[in-house]
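## tool: complex_structure
## caller: assistant
## args:
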Amino acid sequence: MAEEFALIAELQRRLGQGGSGVQTGIGDDGAVLETQGMPLVASTDTLVAGRHFFADVGAADLAWKSLAVNLSDLAAMGAVPRWALLNLALPAGMAHGDWVANFCEGWQALASRAGISLVGGDTVATDGPLLVTVTALGVLQGPALLRSGAMPGDWIAVTGTLGDAALALERQLQLRRGEDPEVLPGAEDWEKRRLRPWPRWELGQQASRLGLRCAADVSDGFLADLGHILQASDVGARILVEHIPLHPALAAWIDEDWERLVRTALTGGDDYELILCGPPARWPQLQELARAAGVQLSQVGEILPAGQGLQLYWHGQQQQLPSRLGHVHAL
Amino acid sequence: MAEEFALIAELQRRLGQGGSGVQTGIGDDGAVLETQGMPLVASTDTLVAGRHFFADVGAADLAWKSLAVNLSDLAAMGAVPRWALLNLALPAGMAHGDWVANFCEGWQALASRAGISLVGGDTVATDGPLLVTVTALGVLQGPALLRSGAMPGDWIAVTGTLGDAALALERQLQLRRGEDPEVLPGAEDWEKRRLRPWPRWELGQQASRLGLRCAADVSDGFLADLGHILQASDVGARILVEHIPLHPALAAWIDEDWERLVRTALTGGDDYELILCGPPARWPQLQELARAAGVQLSQVGEILPAGQGLQLYWHGQQQQLPSRLGHVHAL
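## result:
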């Protein structure tokens, strides 16, 4: 308990200093927050050592990622990030000093960019693996971007590039098995993206202010997350797979191999990019916003009426849906 | 992953059906919630099997308690309970069917009374013990009740009775060690209170609407939680220990023994009652509200100016502060 209080005090000292709309932050029975009449968006994710991250990950990278996955959810709703709560379950007896300092450094590196303040949390000891739960809160300045918001005729777009994190994970697993992965120029970029994904909260909130109504983030894999949209909106989709944006080094490695393409860009997880859908009239404005924000934005297909299913075209040919869709959340 | 989706779907079906101010609940990247301009209160707690609850606890009791501890925090802030997020880390391979159904039953029994809707969460598998994290969100219809809100001259009051859960835990530990606890009439009430604490969200929000400014909940033990108020408000306090409200059966067991009194009512944890402080002019109104709500409310002392420390009087004599203050969060 004394240790728990000390840890909370350290997190409060390093991370919990006020912030926009914070009437009362860490240090009372709850935080008091001002949404100024805007709808609130709440999202939460738990990451488990050995399942969602390697148990030997650096504390700074872990902090970044555990916040990033939640910022990505806020982005996918179109919310402006505001506040976060942090629940840490630390293996009993784990040394706290450096680990906490590094965790705070990684957290703050992303939190300060996203404008998010830590306003609460809890720390407990566990006999099991390390767990990090983050709950992120944001506000909406326009409509929420919902999985159910897609309409036939909408374009489908994605931010950034897809598949990098999946291939980085594959190579990391090879290394850990003592195998020698192929030397690929540019692969260090993917590893960085796997460890420190950069969620698209800026474009997400701009899409909401623009009046768009549909988005999801790419966390389980592009086809799985697009599938959530199709199911919730009761629509089909045509995807032109050659328009899926790829890092040049990843494109070189895939080298027009369908199986490699599916395994990375179409079903690989942990990209934390956005899938956005919207009416043709709004495309030029969104494109302009993306350009101004320095975010790559690619149209990859079109929403179809219900009953049309998910159609994957590649170089003019319709392709078979892979039997195993989506990303399994396990290392 | 398939199992995770199935579990989420079951929680959504059983618990996540709309609710007040819920624009979008479970099933998207985040929940969209309407606070209608009222300040938001957010609180979160993690409970770990073998530390905060016995690993063999029934799922219904566990659900009740994990929600209750957070409702108690909302009550201590004066908030009206609205929404909750639930993060479950379940031991890998744990059978889900009955456990989830029972968990939902216990959750809903309390959530429906408190008017709180489940709007999000996450479920993960762990190789360690079961963990439950609940994040509770509420809104304020008056000032927040802060630990820093006490003023010299304020009365100090507590709801309900103190020490029941601590003695119930002590007896439960005796049983589990194979010892035969004393037969005490009324002890089954304490065990029920230990398993299913009933937080004071109703009186908490009424105190806020009445314009009170100070409260804390009794979770770590009366003296520890009062200590938080004294520290945050920079004040002292005089407590008339004979006015601390006791269950008649507990009073009979304590039998005017100072050590027993300290160990249960003064430093025992998990009562989830409220400590409230306020000016004399507001006492009759709060008393009236408590009476109408059927909540026992007892004045137990007075806030003193800074530098006066914490003074414990018992039958007219000042008593020594016990050297070990507060409740250690460990079975």
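## assistant note: The first strand of chain B starts at residue 22 and ends at 24. Chain B has two domains: 2-139, 147-319. Handing back to user.
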